[in-house]
Protein backbone atom coordinates (compact mmCIF):
# COMPACT_ATOMS: atom_id res chain seq x y z
CA UNK A 1 0.00 0.00 0.00
CA UNK A 2 1.43 3.34 -1.06
CA UNK A 3 2.22 5.83 1.63
CA UNK A 4 0.09 8.94 1.87
CA UNK A 5 1.77 11.98 0.49
CA UNK A 6 1.40 15.22 2.40
CA UNK A 7 1.73 18.51 0.55
CA UNK A 8 4.67 20.40 2.01
CA UNK A 9 3.05 23.83 1.60
CA UNK A 10 -0.49 23.24 2.91
CA UNK A 11 0.05 20.16 5.04
CA UNK A 12 -2.94 18.49 3.33
CA UNK A 13 -2.93 14.95 1.97
CA UNK A 14 -2.84 14.67 -1.83
CA UNK A 15 -4.96 12.38 -4.00
CA UNK A 16 -2.08 11.22 -6.12
CA UNK A 17 -3.26 13.10 -9.20
CA UNK A 18 -0.50 15.20 -10.76
CA UNK A 19 -0.67 17.63 -13.72
CA UNK A 20 2.16 19.19 -15.66
CA UNK A 21 4.71 17.33 -13.61
CA UNK A 22 4.35 19.13 -10.29
CA UNK A 23 0.73 20.36 -9.95
CA UNK A 24 -0.79 18.06 -7.31
CA UNK A 25 -4.48 17.72 -6.34
CA UNK A 26 -5.21 18.09 -2.64
CA UNK A 27 -7.58 15.72 -0.91
CA UNK A 28 -9.27 18.48 1.08
CA UNK A 29 -12.71 17.54 2.48
CA UNK A 30 -15.77 19.74 2.08
CA UNK A 31 -16.59 22.12 4.96
CA UNK A 32 -18.70 20.44 7.62
CA UNK A 33 -21.38 23.14 7.41
CA UNK A 34 -21.80 22.37 3.70
CA UNK A 35 -22.07 18.64 4.37
CA UNK A 36 -24.57 19.14 7.17
CA UNK A 37 -26.63 21.36 4.88
CA UNK A 38 -26.79 18.78 2.09
CA UNK A 39 -27.62 16.03 4.59
CA UNK A 40 -30.43 18.18 5.97
CA UNK A 41 -31.87 18.79 2.49
CA UNK A 42 -31.80 15.06 1.79
CA UNK A 43 -33.68 14.35 5.01
CA UNK A 44 -36.15 17.16 4.23
CA UNK A 45 -36.74 15.78 0.71
CA UNK A 46 -37.43 12.29 2.01
CA UNK A 47 -39.83 13.71 4.58
CA UNK A 48 -41.57 15.73 1.87
CA UNK A 49 -41.96 12.65 -0.35
CA UNK A 50 -43.57 10.83 2.55
CA UNK A 51 -45.94 13.61 3.65
CA UNK A 52 -46.94 15.34 0.38
CA UNK A 53 -47.77 14.40 -3.22
CA UNK A 54 -44.47 13.98 -4.99
CA UNK A 55 -43.86 11.20 -7.52
CA UNK A 56 -45.71 10.53 -10.78
CA UNK A 57 -46.97 6.99 -11.29
CA UNK A 58 -47.14 4.91 -14.51
CA UNK A 59 -50.96 4.98 -14.46
CA UNK A 60 -50.98 8.77 -14.77
CA UNK A 61 -51.57 9.36 -11.08
CA UNK A 62 -49.11 10.32 -8.37
CA UNK A 63 -48.15 9.45 -4.82
CA UNK A 64 -50.60 11.18 -2.45
CA UNK A 65 -48.46 11.38 0.67
CA UNK A 66 -49.69 10.36 4.12
CA UNK A 67 -51.23 13.81 4.64
CA UNK A 68 -53.19 13.51 1.36
CA UNK A 69 -52.65 17.22 0.69
CA UNK A 70 -53.97 18.75 -2.54
CA UNK A 71 -53.17 22.32 -3.51
CA UNK A 72 -55.95 22.21 -6.10
CA UNK A 73 -58.43 21.28 -3.37
CA UNK A 74 -57.17 24.15 -1.22
CA UNK A 75 -57.58 26.67 -4.05
CA UNK A 76 -61.02 25.28 -4.89
CA UNK A 77 -62.08 25.71 -1.28
CA UNK A 78 -60.67 29.23 -1.12
CA UNK A 79 -62.61 30.19 -4.26
CA UNK A 80 -65.76 28.66 -2.80
CA UNK A 81 -65.25 30.57 0.45
CA UNK A 82 -64.73 33.82 -1.47
CA UNK A 83 -67.91 33.26 -3.48
CA UNK A 84 -69.84 32.48 -0.31
CA UNK A 85 -68.56 35.69 1.28
CA UNK A 86 -69.63 37.69 -1.78
CA UNK A 87 -72.99 35.99 -2.16
CA UNK A 88 -74.74 38.33 0.27
CA UNK A 89 -73.45 41.36 -1.66
CA UNK A 90 -74.58 39.95 -4.99
CA UNK A 91 -78.01 39.25 -3.54
CA UNK A 92 -78.32 42.83 -2.27
CA UNK A 93 -77.17 44.23 -5.61
CA UNK A 94 -79.72 42.10 -7.42
CA UNK A 95 -82.51 43.41 -5.19
CA UNK A 96 -81.43 47.07 -5.16
CA UNK A 97 -82.22 49.66 -7.82
CA UNK A 98 -79.23 51.26 -9.51
CA UNK A 99 -80.09 54.71 -8.16
CA UNK A 100 -80.17 53.33 -4.62
CA UNK A 101 -76.88 51.46 -5.06
CA UNK A 102 -75.12 54.78 -5.60
CA UNK A 103 -76.47 55.96 -2.25
CA UNK A 104 -75.64 52.77 -0.36
CA UNK A 105 -72.36 53.22 1.53
CA UNK A 106 -72.09 49.48 2.17
CA UNK A 107 -72.66 48.27 -1.40
CA UNK A 108 -71.04 51.08 -3.38
CA UNK A 109 -67.34 50.23 -2.71
CA UNK A 110 -67.99 46.57 -3.60
CA UNK A 111 -69.90 47.56 -6.75
CA UNK A 112 -67.20 49.99 -7.89
CA UNK A 113 -64.40 47.49 -7.33
CA UNK A 114 -66.29 44.78 -9.20
CA UNK A 115 -67.31 47.16 -11.99
CA UNK A 116 -63.73 48.34 -12.46
CA UNK A 117 -62.51 44.74 -12.77
CA UNK A 118 -65.24 43.85 -15.27
CA UNK A 119 -64.56 47.03 -17.26
CA UNK A 120 -60.85 46.24 -17.48
CA UNK A 121 -61.52 42.71 -18.70
CA UNK A 122 -64.27 43.47 -21.21
CA UNK A 123 -64.40 47.18 -22.11
CA UNK A 124 -60.81 48.39 -21.70
CA UNK A 125 -59.55 46.97 -25.01
CA UNK A 126 -61.80 49.43 -26.91
CA UNK A 127 -62.55 52.27 -24.48
CA UNK A 128 -59.16 52.24 -22.79
CA UNK A 129 -58.30 51.24 -19.23
CA UNK A 130 -59.54 54.57 -17.85
CA UNK A 131 -62.45 54.89 -20.28
CA UNK A 132 -60.86 57.73 -22.24
CA UNK A 133 -61.63 56.04 -25.56
CA UNK A 134 -59.88 56.62 -28.88
CA UNK A 135 -60.80 57.30 -32.49
CA UNK A 136 -64.05 55.44 -33.10
CA UNK A 137 -64.48 54.46 -29.45
CA UNK A 138 -66.37 56.93 -27.23
CA UNK A 139 -64.75 58.66 -24.28
CA UNK A 140 -66.75 57.63 -21.22
CA UNK A 141 -65.21 60.32 -19.00
CA UNK A 142 -66.97 63.31 -20.56
CA UNK A 143 -70.64 64.28 -20.64
CA UNK A 144 -71.13 63.75 -24.37
CA UNK A 145 -73.31 60.66 -24.83
CA UNK A 146 -74.53 59.27 -28.14
CA UNK A 147 -77.37 57.35 -26.52
CA UNK A 148 -77.70 59.10 -23.18
CA UNK A 149 -75.70 58.94 -19.97
CA UNK A 150 -78.36 58.07 -17.41
CA UNK A 151 -78.03 54.85 -15.45
CA UNK A 152 -80.93 53.34 -17.40
CA UNK A 153 -79.47 54.38 -20.77
CA UNK A 154 -76.01 53.04 -19.93
CA UNK A 155 -77.43 49.75 -18.67
CA UNK A 156 -79.48 49.37 -21.85
CA UNK A 157 -76.46 50.05 -24.08
CA UNK A 158 -74.30 47.55 -22.19
CA UNK A 159 -77.00 44.87 -22.18
CA UNK A 160 -78.07 45.10 -25.80
CA UNK A 161 -75.13 46.71 -27.58
CA UNK A 162 -74.96 49.07 -30.54
CA UNK A 163 -75.69 47.55 -33.95
CA UNK A 164 -74.65 44.25 -32.39
CA UNK A 165 -77.27 42.06 -34.04
CA UNK A 166 -79.18 41.71 -30.79
CA UNK A 167 -82.97 42.11 -31.31
CA UNK A 168 -83.04 44.99 -28.83
CA UNK A 169 -79.77 46.62 -29.87
CA UNK A 170 -79.57 50.33 -30.52
CA UNK A 171 -79.53 50.32 -34.28
CA UNK A 172 -80.11 53.76 -35.80
CA UNK A 173 -77.74 54.16 -38.77
CA UNK A 174 -76.53 57.34 -40.43
CA UNK A 175 -77.08 57.30 -44.22
CA UNK A 176 -74.04 56.71 -46.42
CA UNK A 177 -74.43 59.95 -48.33
CA UNK A 178 -71.37 59.35 -50.48
CA UNK A 179 -71.30 55.60 -50.95
CA UNK A 180 -74.97 55.49 -51.87
CA UNK A 181 -74.81 58.57 -54.10
CA UNK A 182 -77.18 60.66 -51.99
CA UNK A 183 -74.87 63.67 -52.20
CA UNK A 184 -72.27 64.70 -54.77
CA UNK A 185 -68.62 65.15 -53.73
CA UNK A 186 -68.87 68.95 -53.74
CA UNK A 187 -72.07 68.82 -51.69
CA UNK A 188 -70.33 66.57 -49.18
CA UNK A 189 -67.42 69.01 -48.92
CA UNK A 190 -69.83 71.94 -48.39
CA UNK A 191 -71.81 70.06 -45.77
CA UNK A 192 -68.61 69.13 -43.94
CA UNK A 193 -67.59 72.79 -43.85
CA UNK A 194 -70.97 73.74 -42.39
CA UNK A 195 -70.72 70.97 -39.77
CA UNK A 196 -67.30 72.29 -38.75
CA UNK A 197 -68.69 75.82 -38.59
CA UNK A 198 -71.06 74.73 -35.82
CA UNK A 199 -68.06 74.44 -33.50
CA UNK A 200 -66.01 77.23 -35.06
CA UNK A 201 -63.80 74.96 -37.14
CA UNK A 202 -64.77 75.84 -40.72
CA UNK A 203 -62.01 76.92 -43.08
CA UNK A 204 -64.18 78.00 -46.04
CA UNK A 205 -67.05 80.34 -45.15
CA UNK A 206 -68.52 80.27 -48.65
CA UNK A 207 -68.62 76.47 -48.65
CA UNK A 208 -70.12 76.49 -45.16
CA UNK A 209 -72.81 78.86 -46.38
CA UNK A 210 -73.73 76.49 -49.20
CA UNK A 211 -73.63 73.53 -46.81
CA UNK A 212 -76.18 75.09 -44.43
CA UNK A 213 -79.10 74.29 -46.72
CA UNK A 214 -77.73 70.84 -47.45
CA UNK A 215 -77.52 70.21 -43.71
CA UNK A 216 -81.10 71.39 -43.27
CA UNK A 217 -82.31 69.09 -46.03
CA UNK A 218 -80.39 65.98 -44.97
CA UNK A 219 -79.15 66.16 -41.38
CA UNK A 220 -81.53 68.22 -39.26
CA UNK A 221 -83.98 65.36 -38.77
CA UNK A 222 -81.47 63.57 -36.55
CA UNK A 223 -78.91 66.17 -35.45
CA UNK A 224 -81.38 69.03 -34.94
CA UNK A 225 -81.40 72.52 -36.41
CA UNK A 226 -78.66 73.63 -34.03
CA UNK A 227 -76.64 70.45 -34.63
CA UNK A 228 -76.69 69.49 -30.95
CA UNK A 229 -77.80 65.94 -31.69
CA UNK A 230 -80.45 63.64 -30.29
CA UNK A 231 -79.58 60.80 -27.87
CA UNK A 232 -82.90 59.11 -28.68
CA UNK A 233 -81.51 58.12 -32.09
CA UNK A 234 -77.79 58.15 -31.27
CA UNK A 235 -77.13 61.33 -33.25
CA UNK A 236 -74.02 63.06 -31.88
CA UNK A 237 -73.73 66.69 -30.90
CA UNK A 238 -71.94 68.45 -33.77
CA UNK A 239 -71.76 71.84 -32.06
CA UNK A 240 -69.18 70.99 -29.41
CA UNK A 241 -65.48 70.16 -29.67
CA UNK A 242 -65.86 66.43 -28.98
CA UNK A 243 -65.37 64.29 -32.08
CA UNK A 244 -65.65 60.51 -32.19
CA UNK A 245 -63.88 60.08 -35.53
CA UNK A 246 -61.77 63.24 -35.65
CA UNK A 247 -62.33 66.94 -36.32
CA UNK A 248 -60.31 67.40 -39.50
CA UNK A 249 -62.19 68.27 -42.65
CA UNK A 250 -61.21 64.90 -44.16
CA UNK A 251 -62.55 63.10 -41.08
CA UNK A 252 -65.92 64.84 -41.25
CA UNK A 253 -66.17 64.27 -45.00
CA UNK A 254 -65.46 60.58 -44.52
CA UNK A 255 -68.18 60.36 -41.87
CA UNK A 256 -70.66 61.87 -44.34
CA UNK A 257 -69.50 59.59 -47.15
CA UNK A 258 -69.56 56.31 -45.19
CA UNK A 259 -72.02 56.93 -42.36
CA UNK A 260 -69.45 55.25 -40.05
CA UNK A 261 -71.76 53.01 -37.95
CA UNK A 262 -69.63 51.73 -35.07
CA UNK A 263 -70.52 48.47 -33.36
CA UNK A 264 -70.55 47.60 -29.65
CA UNK A 265 -71.15 44.00 -28.51
CA UNK A 266 -74.22 42.96 -26.58
CA UNK A 267 -73.07 41.95 -23.10
CA UNK A 268 -76.46 40.66 -21.98
CA UNK A 269 -75.65 37.11 -23.04
CA UNK A 270 -72.11 37.22 -21.70
CA UNK A 271 -72.45 38.92 -18.34
CA UNK A 272 -75.08 38.18 -15.70
CA UNK A 273 -77.51 40.96 -14.63
CA UNK A 274 -75.68 41.67 -11.34
CA UNK A 275 -72.37 42.09 -13.16
CA UNK A 276 -74.00 44.41 -15.69
CA UNK A 277 -75.38 46.46 -12.79
CA UNK A 278 -71.91 46.84 -11.32
CA UNK A 279 -70.47 47.73 -14.72
CA UNK A 280 -73.23 50.28 -15.28
CA UNK A 281 -72.57 51.98 -11.95
CA UNK A 282 -68.84 52.07 -12.66
CA UNK A 283 -69.21 53.56 -16.16
CA UNK A 284 -71.67 56.12 -14.78
CA UNK A 285 -69.11 57.12 -12.15
CA UNK A 286 -66.28 57.77 -14.61
CA UNK A 287 -67.28 61.39 -14.84
CA UNK A 288 -69.83 61.68 -17.59
CA UNK A 289 -72.90 60.04 -16.08
CA UNK A 290 -76.03 62.14 -16.27
UniProtKB/TrEMBL annotation:
<dbReference type="Pfam" id="PF13442">
    <property type="entry name" value="Cytochrome_CBB3"/>
</dbReference>
<comment type="pathway">
    <text>Energy metabolism; oxidative phosphorylation.</text>
</comment>
<feature type="transmembrane region" description="Helical">
    <location>
        <begin position="33"/>
        <end position="52"/>
    </location>
</feature>
<feature type="binding site" description="covalent">
    <location>
        <position position="222"/>
    </location>
    <ligand>
        <name>heme c 2</name>
    </ligand>
</feature>
<keyword id="KW-0560">Oxidoreductase</keyword>
<dbReference type="GO" id="GO:0020037">
    <property type="term" value="F:heme binding"/>
</dbReference>
<dbReference type="InterPro" id="IPR009056">
    <property type="entry name" value="Cyt_c-like_dom"/>
</dbReference>
<dbReference type="InterPro" id="IPR004678">
    <property type="entry name" value="Cyt_c_oxidase_cbb3_su3"/>
</dbReference>
<dbReference type="InterPro" id="IPR032858">
    <property type="entry name" value="CcoP_N"/>
</dbReference>
<keyword id="KW-0677">Repeat</keyword>
<dbReference type="Pfam" id="PF14715">
    <property type="entry name" value="FixP_N"/>
</dbReference>
<keyword id="KW-0479">Metal-binding</keyword>
<feature type="binding site" description="axial binding residue">
    <location>
        <position position="127"/>
    </location>
    <ligand>
        <name>heme c 1</name>
    </ligand>
</feature>
<dbReference type="InterPro" id="IPR036909">
    <property type="entry name" value="Cyt_c-like_dom_sf"/>
</dbReference>
<dbReference type="GO" id="GO:0005506">
    <property type="term" value="F:iron ion binding"/>
</dbReference>
<protein>
    <recommendedName>
        <fullName>Cbb3-type cytochrome c oxidase subunit</fullName>
    </recommendedName>
</protein>
<keyword id="KW-0997">Cell inner membrane</keyword>
<dbReference type="GO" id="GO:0006119">
    <property type="term" value="P:oxidative phosphorylation"/>
</dbReference>
<feature type="domain" description="Cytochrome c">
    <location>
        <begin position="110"/>
        <end position="199"/>
    </location>
</feature>
<comment type="function">
    <text>C-type cytochrome. Part of the cbb3-type cytochrome c oxidase complex. FixP subunit is required for transferring electrons from donor cytochrome c via its heme groups to FixO subunit. From there, electrons are shuttled to the catalytic binuclear center of FixN subunit where oxygen reduction takes place. The complex also functions as a proton pump.</text>
</comment>
<feature type="binding site" description="covalent">
    <location>
        <position position="123"/>
    </location>
    <ligand>
        <name>heme c 1</name>
    </ligand>
</feature>
<comment type="subunit">
    <text>Component of the cbb3-type cytochrome c oxidase at least composed of FixN, FixO, FixQ and FixP.</text>
</comment>
<keyword id="KW-0249">Electron transport</keyword>
<feature type="domain" description="Cytochrome c">
    <location>
        <begin position="206"/>
        <end position="287"/>
    </location>
</feature>
<dbReference type="GO" id="GO:0009055">
    <property type="term" value="F:electron transfer activity"/>
</dbReference>
<dbReference type="InterPro" id="IPR050597">
    <property type="entry name" value="Cytochrome_c_Oxidase_Subunit"/>
</dbReference>
<keyword id="KW-0375">Hydrogen ion transport</keyword>
<keyword id="KW-0406">Ion transport</keyword>
<keyword id="KW-0349">Heme</keyword>
<keyword id="KW-0813">Transport</keyword>
<feature type="binding site" description="axial binding residue">
    <location>
        <position position="223"/>
    </location>
    <ligand>
        <name>heme c 2</name>
    </ligand>
</feature>
<feature type="binding site" description="covalent">
    <location>
        <position position="126"/>
    </location>
    <ligand>
        <name>heme c 1</name>
    </ligand>
</feature>
<dbReference type="GO" id="GO:1902600">
    <property type="term" value="P:proton transmembrane transport"/>
</dbReference>
<dbReference type="GO" id="GO:0016491">
    <property type="term" value="F:oxidoreductase activity"/>
</dbReference>
<keyword id="KW-0679">Respiratory chain</keyword>
<dbReference type="GO" id="GO:0005886">
    <property type="term" value="C:plasma membrane"/>
</dbReference>
<keyword id="KW-1133">Transmembrane helix</keyword>
<keyword id="KW-0472">Membrane</keyword>
<feature type="binding site" description="covalent">
    <location>
        <position position="219"/>
    </location>
    <ligand>
        <name>heme c 2</name>
    </ligand>
</feature>
<keyword id="KW-1003">Cell membrane</keyword>
<keyword id="KW-0812">Transmembrane</keyword>
<dbReference type="InterPro" id="IPR038414">
    <property type="entry name" value="CcoP_N_sf"/>
</dbReference>
Amino acid sequence: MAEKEIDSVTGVETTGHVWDGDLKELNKPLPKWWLYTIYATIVWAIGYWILYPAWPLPDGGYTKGIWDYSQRAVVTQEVADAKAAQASYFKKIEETQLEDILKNEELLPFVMAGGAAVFGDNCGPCHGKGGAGSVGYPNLNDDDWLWGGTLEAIEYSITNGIRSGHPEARDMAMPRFGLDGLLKPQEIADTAQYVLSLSGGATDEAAAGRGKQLFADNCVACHGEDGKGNPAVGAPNLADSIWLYGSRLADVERSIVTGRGGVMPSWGGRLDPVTIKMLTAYVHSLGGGQ
